[in-house]
């Protein structure tokens, strides 16, 4: 059984096709910010007769590979939907496992992330996470806070509607305390009041697993984001899938509601 599990987690080495894709990327037109809905872990495991927990563990391997590639090619921000506000509805055993896996990932990976100049960040209602998860996050934040490469942005206890609600409350309190007037509320103020304040909006959203919805993820920020959907489950999502998504993004014409320039 151990050999079977190990083989399922294994990832192929860089292939000629991957090298070709790397050469096809225009390094001057990379998306500054990529967002990923890491979906399909549980179904991936169940289809193999394995517990859902092993699907989540396999998903961590995919995350590790994708973070490394984003860092290598020069992506500025990578936001990964790791745990939603709705995920608390799952069985307590699975929720506890996910929290333990988060702590394990941070403790094991933070040295390598720091070595590769990756800054760890998180968005969501982090204060509602278990104490051990909050402590692991704070340790990762502190160790990598001065890094200037990729920002790995983990969405934890995150919901798009919750984020907007929190922004509205923040702005309402500013008005109430006479720090600003209602007439001064605009798009920029709202952006600056979101969890992602100071970050560019995602230019590319990737969703594996064959689903075609955004699942309450970055509702404000995705206004003009390009979507790339794939049938592959997240644990099977490999480096060449990301490269394909980036190449597809670079081939699209982004008009932002305007017309083509002649």
Molecular structure report:
The protein is built from 9 helices and 6 strands, in the order ααβααβαβαβααββα. Mean pLDDT is 92; it is low at 1-14. The chain is 45% helix and 13% strand. It has 262 residues and is α/β, with parallel strands linked by helices. The radius of gyration is 19 Å and the shape is globular. It has a 6-stranded parallel β-sheet with strand order 3-4-2-1-5-6, sandwiched between helices. Helix 2 (16-24) runs parallel beside helix 9 (239-250), helix 4 runs parallel beside helix 5 and helix 5 (92-115) packs parallel to helix 6. It has helices at 2-9, 16-24, 41-46, 52-73, 92-115, 131-144, 160-176, 187-193, 239-250, and strands spanning 33-37, 77-84, 119-123, 151-158, 204-207, 226-229.
Radius of gyration of CA atoms, rounded to a whole number? 19 Å
- Give the biggest sheet: 6 strands, parallel
Which structural class do you get from the secondary structure elements? alpha/beta
Low-confidence stretches: 1-14
Q: Which geometry do the CA atoms define?
A: globular
**Mean of all residue-level pLDDT scores:** 92
Share of helical residues? 40-55%
The number of E-state strands comes to 6
The first-to-last residue Cα distance is 61 Å
Task: Strand order, main sheet: write it out.
Answer: 3-4-2-1-5-6
Q: Please write the string of helix (H) and strand (E) elements.
A: HHEHHEHEHEHHEEH
Number of helices, counting only DSSP H or I runs of 4 residues or more:
9
């Amino acid at each position: 059984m151990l050999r079977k599990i190990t083989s399922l987690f294994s990832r192929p080495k860089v292939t000629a096709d991957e090298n070709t894709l790397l050469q096809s990327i225009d390094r001057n037109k990379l998306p500054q910010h990529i967002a990923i809905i890491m979906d399909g872990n549980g179904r991936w495991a169940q289809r193999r007769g394995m517990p859902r927990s092993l699907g989540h563990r396999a998903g961590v391997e995919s995350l590790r590979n994708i973070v490394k590639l984003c860092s290598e090619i020069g992506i500025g921000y990578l936001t990964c939907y790791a745990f939603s506000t709705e995920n608390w509805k799952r069985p307590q055993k699975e929720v506890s496992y996910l929290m333990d896996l988060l702590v394990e990932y941070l403790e094991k990976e933070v040295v390598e992330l720091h070595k590769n100049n990756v800054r760890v960040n998180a968005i969501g209602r982090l204060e509602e996470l278990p104490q051990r998860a909050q402590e692991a996050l704070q340790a990762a934040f502190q160790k990598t806070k001065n890094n200037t490469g990729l920002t790995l942005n983990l969405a934890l206890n995150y919901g798009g509607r919750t984020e907007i609600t929190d922004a509205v409350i923040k702005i309402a309190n500013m008005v109430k305390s006479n720090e600003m007037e209602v007439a001064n509320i605009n798009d920029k103020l709202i952006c600056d009041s979101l969890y992602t304040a100071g970050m560019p909006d995602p230019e590319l959203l990737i969703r594996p697993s064959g689903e075609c919805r955004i699942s309450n993820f970055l509702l404000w920020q995705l206004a003009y984001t390009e979507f790339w959907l794939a049938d592959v489950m997240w644990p099977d999502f490999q480096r060449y899938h990301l490269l394909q998504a980036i190449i597809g993004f670079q081939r699209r014409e982004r008009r932002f509601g305007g017309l083509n320039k002649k």
